[in-house]
Amino acid sequence: MKSETSVKTTERLEWGDINWKKVERRLFRLQKRIYKASKRGDFKAVRYLQKLLLKSWSAKVLAVRSVTQDNQGKNTAGVDGVKSLCSQARINLVGQLTLGAKPKPTHRVDSTETVVNAPSRNGEQTIFCRAGQGLVRLALEPEWEAKFESNCYGFRPGRSCHDAIKAISNHLESEPKWVLDTQITKCLSDRINGDRLLDKLGTFPKLRRQIRAWLKSGVMDGKQLFPTKEGTPPGGLIQPLLAHIALHGIEEDILKMADQLSGREPVNRHQLCLIRYADKLVILHQDAAVIHHSQQVIREWLKPWGLELKPEQTRIAHTLDGEDAGFDFLGFHIQQYRVGKYHSGKDRKGKSLGFKTIIKPSRNAVTEHYKLLARVIDAHQAAPQAALIRRLNRIILRWSNYYSTVVSKEVLNKLDYLLFGKLRRWANRRHPHQSEKWVANKYWQSIDNRNWAFAVRGHEEIALFKHSQIHIFRYVKGKEAASAEDGNLSYGSTANCGNYQ
């Protein structure tokens, strides 16, 4: 197969003339071939196709686009001081993007530690480094997507927070469970054993040397260089993928433990559920002894990697009984409540379960969201009403959409009530010498069958979006074995769309 670099020349191409649909199709075909080769265990084909992808012009332009246009941190300057690139600079970066370049040390930012202490790996890298990591991620991701465990979520294509929550909900449908809710300390920063990670990657020498160079690039704190002996490269696109690779296998080992507990009858692995979202873990089982034993197994599993469970984030509870029943995960509170037979679900035999599983926004998430709204309103005390509405709408829509798949109607109505009172105080402080009726007529309107809508009329009509306006729907979890790189386009185009109640 002829390399794209032989038919593409960066000098005669403009960034705005790139056919992005064609470029994405080319990359997808390569990634699909890597995925299928990895799935069938043909690692010779995997390495050949990865080398082909790393030389591909299409992969390089998409890697550059991901760090200069698509990424949320695209306007954040790196250690090289480059915050944005013009079209010609992006084309030049594509031509320079090759493996083997020595990376510059990560620049430490927002540090609260003194220089004499071991530095945090939170920082920024050069835009060249970030683009290189994006290119390597495009090559490694399809290989490992074919290997990753079914209940592994977070920073993976086609797998969201809602998939993880739905997996928990599905496992709690038939009976109450004991739960271990925990988090792995600094899994996404500076604690992973780099040599062990490279051995687990098992990639070809040139790519191994490049990843090793990123791992050992060091951290700059002011003018002082701190060498790094462990950890994943921060500030880059490859960091979450390397963390997933390091933690791959923990679910299977926990399931084997459940099947082989000494002194007990074999436990069906379908009764135990481990759900991991990046560095957060949830283990569910009806036997408290299995949960406690799982905690010990995880601690022993993490030791060779230089990782451990975060004590303040580790909690064992029951989903139905006890004063502290239920648990929080990814901003959701999951708990079971005893109900009568007319409100209870039924098992496979048609018998009433006597409880109901309810998932709703966690108390901390609601509190933090309202505090953010209050800070925005206080910061816009002298701003025009339209500016305040635009800022609040972005926050309210994002938050309400996130919780639109669970039992959140009551919480959304309460937030609207609290926000109305905060806005009344905001409006009254702007006009201390006017009556409340005059203030209400100025800032609240009747729009689209809505009374008391916080809105602006005139040449620019804009109204505040209420939390309770969001549609609540039942989320449809994607198939556990499905992947964005498996080539099943008919399923991928319809998955995770949700069914409205």
From TrEMBL:
UniProt cross-references to SUPFAM superfamilies, sorted A to Z: DNA/RNA polymerases
Residues in Reverse transcriptase domain copies: 1-334
Source species, domain of life: Bacteria
InterPro entries (alphabetical): DNA/RNA_pol_sf (IPR043502), GrpII_Intron_Splice-Mob/Def (IPR051083), Mat_intron_G2 (IPR013597), RT_dom (IPR000477), RVT_N (IPR025960)
Identification of the protein by name: Reverse transcriptase N-terminal domain-containing protein
GO molecular function, one term: RNA-directed DNA polymerase activity
Native organism: Limnospira fusiformis PMC 851.14
Keyword line: Nucleotidyltransferase, RNA-directed DNA polymerase, Transferase
